[in-house]
């Protein structure tokens, strides 16, 4: 059977491409111009000459420090998430006790908790733990709010591991930890990569927890630094655009390297 | 298809009597769940309870919260402004759903089909997913600036953030720009899973493209529409960064939503007790809407759209 091309949908997609493309084009085009050239030429004009002077300006405003903070927060969030989520998912799938199935239901319900509504009690808890204004303060709730979805995706993948494999390892005399290490983790590499990428993206791009749980510039992460760039740069819009691009650059590289897992991780959100 | 469905089913072998002793040895115990439970309990579940408690206190951000009974709740219900904030929140939620859902479905179904250059196009499509909400909001904040933005050369956009309807439109545009690619992804995955035999049968019966879309594609996407709508609606209720950085609730307070009101009351005016009341409302409304969607759509039963195939 030959399918007719869908012209209406094609036209809509072309329109969408323009809508996505124009702001991206504007961002790139502005960021490569000097302030004067940007103001002289129209906002949509192709840059007359290209300059990288804005990169230096962004670097001068403490970019590397904020980048390091974001890298620490992201790496720690991914590491901690996997460290606690993998054993939990394993127990949920393999344990026969009522406790693990109840926990699974609690985690499922946990996906409906809006993080925004918990910032006030979190601020209180973090303060009482003497963690206010530290990177740890950002990491802990980031892990907690990521867990439900991560566990759900991991459980889905672990259920595909056949019972015979577990039985075979048991016959060999393997305990639960060795099974986790030698069977569960190797068998769910794809799912682990997907949730890891997804967690990294969320940790990198988050804004609210850093906003309310840190204060000092030395603890500032990249997303938060964009708001201060906006104030510092005032009408230096090209500098601002370069800052936006530079915060997204590592994510873009990740996208090129791990596109499959990123999409799988994002799509995992829909399977709930 | 049946193979895929079977492998999805929980694999739990019934413990046969001779194997029982072994089974007890090789299965993980509750300790494996403990770390996750501690994290989730302390930083996600406990705050949910604590916010409700704080709504009955006069906490100012420092010191010990003092119990004041239902004062904050009475104050909130007597406050006219909270109704404006609530209706703005619901209006935005509605507008976001109405614009994003049809576009995501059409784009997703299109992206699921076969056409040339799809790889390049879909790579571009998903670019907004890579940027942080903060970056997108600030990008558009500059783009919509009357003095430096696109409005310099395009009159209809010049003062878009300066009027109430303009600012609301701007938020809907920015939120759509950011999230339509994600929902498109959901619909694309779902549309690819629709069995081709359904279309073949319809084609033999003489159904055209429009009929196929209306009578096969849409009904088959039902579960995805519900999932996507729930994410969209609960998400819209709780948008903070986009509005905070794009309009900051302005002009005046016309785009202030419940999360913004909560933030301004707590971290700006130090009325953490009163702000907790608003946060509690947010939790209640979001939960109620999720439950309503689940109940009235029959999603709880999770009836497969593949039944009878």
From TrEMBL, chain A:
PROSITE patterns in the record: ABC_TM1
Pfam families for the chain: BPD_transp_1
Any one biological process term the GO annotation gives: transmembrane transport
Ranges that cross the membrane: 7-28, 66-92, 104-126, 138-158, 179-201, 235-257
Main subcellular location: membrane
GO cellular component: plasma membrane
Membrane topology designation: Multi-pass membrane protein
InterPro entries reported in the protein's UniProt record: MetI-like (IPR000515), MetI-like_sf (IPR035906)
Cell location: Cell membrane
Keyword annotations from UniProtKB, A to Z: Cell membrane, Membrane, Transmembrane, Transmembrane helix, Transport
Domain of life, source organism: Bacteria
SUPFAM superfamilies linked: MetI-like
Keyword check for Transmembrane helix: yes
Residues in ABC transmembrane type-1 domain copies: 67-258
Family note: Belongs to the binding-protein-dependent transport system permease family.
Name this protein carries in UniProt: Xylobiose transport system permease protein
Native species: Actinophytocola algeriensis
From TrEMBL, chain B:
Segments for region (Disordered): 1-22
InterPro entries: ABC_transporter_permease, MetI-like, MetI-like_sf
Sequence intervals crossing the membrane: 30-56, 90-112, 119-140, 160-180, 231-252, 272-294
Main location: membrane
Localization of this protein: Cell membrane
GO biological process: transmembrane transport
PROSITE patterns: ABC_TM1 (PS50928)
Domain ABC transmembrane type-1: 86-293
Membrane topology value: Multi-pass membrane protein
Pfam family, any one: BPD_transp_1
CDD domains per record: TM_PBP2 (cd06261)
Gene Ontology cellular component list: plasma membrane
Keywords: Cell membrane, Membrane, Transmembrane, Transmembrane helix, Transport
Family per record: Belongs to the binding-protein-dependent transport system permease family.
Name of the protein: Xylobiose transport system permease protein
Organism field: Actinophytocola algeriensis
């Amino acid at each position: 059977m030959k399918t007719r091309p869908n012209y209406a949908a094609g036209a809509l997609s072309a329109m969408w491409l323009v809508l996505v493309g124009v702001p991206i084009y504007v961002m790139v085009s502005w960021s490569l111009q000097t302030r004067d050239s940007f103001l002289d030429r129209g906002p949509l004009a192709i840059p007359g000459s290209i300059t990288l002077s804005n990169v230096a300006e962004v670097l001068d405003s403490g970019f590397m420090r904020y980048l390091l903070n974001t890298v620490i927060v992201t790496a720690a969030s991914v590491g901690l998430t996997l460290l606690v989520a993998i054993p939990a998912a394993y127990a949920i799938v393999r344990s026969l006790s009522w406790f693990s199935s109840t926990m699974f239901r609690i985690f499922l319900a946990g996906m409906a908790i809006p993080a925004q509504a918990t910032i006030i009690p979190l601020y209180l808890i973090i303060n009482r733990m003497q963690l206010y204004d530290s990177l740890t303060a950002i990491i802990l709730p980031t892990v907690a709010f990521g867990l439900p979805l991560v566990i759900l995706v991991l459980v889905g993948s672990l259920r595909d591991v056949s019972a015979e494999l577990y039985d075979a390892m048991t016959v060999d005399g393997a305990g639960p930890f060795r099974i986790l290490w030698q069977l569960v983790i190797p068998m769910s590499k794809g799912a682990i990569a997907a949730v890891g990428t997804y967690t990294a993206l969320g940790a990198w791009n988050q804004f609210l927890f850093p906003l309310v749980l840190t204060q000092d510039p030395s603890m500032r992460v990249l997303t938060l630094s964009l708001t201060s760039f906006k104030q510092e740069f005032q009408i230096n819009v090209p500098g601002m655009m370069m800052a936006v691009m530079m915060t997204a650059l590592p994510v873009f590289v990740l996208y090129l390297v791990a596109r499959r897992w990123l999409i799988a991780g994002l799509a995992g959100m829909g399977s709930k | 298809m049946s193979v895929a469905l079977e492998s999805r089913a929980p694999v739990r072998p019934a413990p046969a009597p001779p194997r029982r002793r072994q089974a007890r040895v090789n299965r993980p115990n509750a300790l494996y769940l403990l770390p996750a439970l501690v994290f989730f309990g302390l930083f996600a579940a406990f705050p949910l309870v604590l916010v409700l408690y704080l709504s009955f206190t006069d906490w100012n951000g420092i010191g010990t919260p003092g119990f004041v009974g239902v004062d904050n709740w009475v104050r909130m219900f007597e406050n006219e402004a909270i109704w404006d904030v609530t209706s703005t929140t619901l209006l935005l939620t509605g507008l976001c759903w109405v614009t994003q859902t049809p576009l995501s479905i059409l784009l997703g179904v299109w992206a699921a089909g076969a056409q040339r250059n799809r790889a390049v196009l879909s790579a571009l499509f998903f670019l907004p997913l890579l940027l942080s909400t903060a970056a997108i909001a600030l990008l558009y904040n500059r783009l919509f600036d009357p003095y430096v933005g696109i409005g310099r050369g395009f009159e209809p956009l010049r003062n878009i953030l300066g009027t109430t309807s303009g600012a609301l439109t701007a938020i809907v545009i920015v939120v759509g720009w950011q999230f339509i690619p994600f929902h498109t992804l959901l619909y694309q995955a779902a549309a690819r899973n629709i069995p081709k035999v359904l279309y073949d049968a319809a084609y033999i019966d003489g159904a055209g493209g429009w009929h196929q879309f209306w009578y096969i594609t849409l009904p088959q996407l039902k579960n995805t529409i519900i999932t996507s709508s729930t994410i969209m609606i609960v998400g819209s209720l709780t948008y903070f960064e986009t509005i905070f950085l794009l309009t900051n609730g302005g002009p005046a307070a016309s785009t202030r939503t419940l999360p913004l009101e909560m933030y301004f009351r707590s971290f700006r005016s130090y009325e953490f007790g009163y702000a907790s009341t608003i946060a509690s409302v947010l939790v209640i409304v979001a939960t109620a809407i999720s439950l309503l969607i689940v109940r009235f759509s029959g999603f709880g039963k999770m009836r497969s759209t593949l039944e009878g195939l």
